[in-house]
Specification:
Layout (H helix, E strand, L loop, with lengths): L2 E11 L5 E11 L3 E5 L6 H8 L7 E6 L2 E2 L4 H6 L1 E4 L11 H11 L6 H10 L15 H13 L5 E5 L7 H16 L3 E5 L3 H7 L2 E6 L2 E7 H8 L2 E7 L15 E4 L4 E6 L8 H10 L4 E8 L2 H11 L2
Parallel strand pairs: 3-8, 3-9, 6-7, 7-8
Antiparallel strand pairs: 1-2, 1-4, 4-5, 9-10, 11-13, 11-14, 12-13
Length: about 300
């Protein structure tokens, strides 16, 4: 796939000695939704701010569609839309004036039809004449997205875009993001809501302590690192596990009425057949069975804990 953002050996250190990024190398594919996950202070926002030209790197190189972000700042910045975490908006301006002004900052000619489409897609059209001061936090968040889209960027950075947004609106915004991807816009998303990445991302990157520790296609990541659970609903209460079942990774739940067996779905032998045989030999009967798989959040927590 074509690379639209190339980050090579990028580092950022501050005067107080804090190293926010350490030798980060990353490639973003054109037209994908890339989710960057990491705990607070991991370096997500610093990485975004450097790519967007807001923060200067200490070392390394970043290319946006082949253009160097330092030497060709105007060319790269005009290709990028940024939705920051902070709700910084012109409180006494109307929604329409704010979005129109943002487009003008990039030297773009007036395009009321485009701005109308953007505002309608974000459910802001009926509030286009409202002052920012009168809007809710969720609406202000949507105005930030509208501003970022006003100059028709090829790349859109969403830094915690749905923080403080209700669940219904969050779903609407995911729909907008998918539509942007279908139109060819590359989306880079940071989020604390891991279900966002699980629902809409094509690839996942995990950053911790300023270092990229993993980049993987979401489906492959969940397939390779996600364990599966076999849940057995028992016919009779199990007060304790028989000794012959000690070799299995079993948890007893629901006051002895449920057994959960965790296994590696990619292993050559899952052990399920042997387990069912040993359960039968022990006289343990069940009336229902189901399987579940680790969520992306569980995988993320496990990965981060491993390298702490």
């Amino acid at each position: 796939m074509q690379t639209i953002i190339s980050v090579e050996n990028l580092s950022k250190s501050y005067d107080n000695g804090f190293q926010a990024l350490n030798n980060v190398t990353l490639k973003i594919h054109k037209g994908e939704i890339f989710a960057l996950l990491g705990p607070n202070g991991a370096g997500k926002t610093t990485l975004i701010n450097i790519i967007c030209g807001i923060v200067n790197p200490s070392s390394g190189k970043v290319l946006v569609d082949g253009h160097d972000i330092v030497r060709e700042f105007r060319a790269t910045r005009s290709m990028i839309g940024l939705v920051p975490q902070e709700l910084v908006t012109e409180s006494f301006e109307s929604v329409w004036a704010t979005v129109s002004f943002s487009r003008g900052l990039f030297g773009k000619p007036a395009a009321p039809e485009h701005l109308e489409r953007v505002l309608k897609s974000l459910s802001l059209w009926d509030r286009k004449d409202s002052k920012i001061l009168t809007l809710s936090g969720g609406m202000k968040r949507r105005v930030l997205i509208a501003k970022a889209l006003s100059h028709e960027p090829q790349i859109l950075f969403l830094d915690e875009p749905t923080a403080g947004v209700d669940v219904e609106l969050r779903q609407d915004m995911w729909h907008v993001v998918r539509g942007l991807r279908e139109s060819g816009v590359t989306i880079i998303l940071t989020t604390h809501y891991i279900e966002e990445a699980e629902q809409i991302a094509d690839r996942i990157g995990i950053i911790n302590h300023g270092e990229i520790i993993l980049v993987q296609e979401k489906v492959r990541l969940m397939r390779e690192l996600g364990s599966k659970q076999l849940v057995l609903e028992l016919q009779e209460q199990l007060r304790e596990l028989p000794p012959q079942l000690d070799s299995y990774d079993l948890d007893v739940a629901k006051e002895g009425m449920e057994l959960t067996y965790t296994y590696d779905s990619q292993a050559e032998h899952t052990g399920i057949t042997a387990l069912l045989g040993d359960l039968s030999a022990a006289g343990i009967k069940f009336h229902d069975v189901k399987t579940t798989q680790s969520s992306l959040e569980e995988i993320f927590v496990e990965l981060v804990n491993k390298i702490r």
